[in-house]
Amino acid sequence: MMPADPLEAVTAPDPYPYYRALAARQPFGFDERLGLWVAAGPAEVAAVLAHPDCRVRPLSQPVPTALAGTAAGALFGRLIRMNDGAAHAPLKAILMRSMASIDAATAKARCAGLAGVLDLVPDMAPLNGATINRWLFTLPVVTVADLLGLPVRAGADAVAVAARVAAYAAAQSPLATADDVEAGSDAARWLGQWLKMPAGRPCPAEDLGLLPALRQAAHANDIAPEVVAANVIGVMVQACEATAGLAGNMLVRLGRSSPTTGGLDELAVRVAIDDPPVQNTRRFLAADARVCGVPVRAGDAVLVLLAAASCAAPVEAGARPWTFGAGRHACPGDALARALAAATVDALLARGAQPAFLAQAFRYRPSHNARVPHFFEALVRPHSPRRPTT
């Protein structure tokens, strides 16, 4: 059965025929059911993401109503990926340089080392559906924290950090409950205090992580420390749900078909294109404008179907997958996300995860934009773990 609308498509068993049909039939148009403009064709998605009047937040609502006046909302309001304008350009440039400087091989080596740390945490040990899900939401986040130079070496502490990041990410969802928002605010406060802690682990001078250099560059540009802290948390949030979705969708793909000849690195690229973790994003009109040749009014919202653009036309080899966005708010850590997803899958396979079982026993987490599997059966046999090369 075809999804009823683009939001229902996010967690449908196979939304891609629907996306292709929509992109062909109505690459840009108004969806009466949702009350939104919808961009589905590749050219239309690119045009919306590049349009100067299409902003990441409505001018009248810089913070979602549910978060307004909370610690979660205060953090949200400082995120450069949730703001437009010249005021945020210096920090954005600093963060983009920092993220681009992370070598994929180094990231995968750190990820493998931290997987060994997680083996020591009792509630991460039995490899069943619950622990698979925890690994997906924990290992990429703590690896990013470690690369930044944050204190995540202790196993239980690493799990606690990832849990707070996941709680803050959940609070931002349109589906968040009042309890989710309260938990997200608690997490925002906890993470803010945690960022003030010293690393607490000996390491050579050349291995202090990116955070000291990031803070120094921000100070030179008169960027407030709390803004830097918010965006460091933002980087970890981006490594949370989206990377968990990419790694989880890779496990599902492995369970349904043979791996590609290029191993897990190539599989991460293919899944980012064919079954992307971030299916859509939104833009809001700051002024009356023509978008894709159509007059659109100030305050109107556009649902940008990244997944539809991805499947509507072949993606050229080496091109950036649509799931990581484009234009002013393109994700700066796309290569890192693919490397961490591949390393996370590799770590789970090495510990005996069986993709064939995974692919038979999961659902997608409720979401309006992220396609993230949630596994719920016993997923491992006690023998024959395999460890493909990433």
From TrEMBL:
UniProt source species: Cupriavidus pinatubonensis
Top-rank lineage group of the source organism: Bacteria
SUPFAM superfamilies on file: Cytochrome P450
Protein name, as recorded: Cytochrome P450
Family statement: Belongs to the cytochrome P450 family.
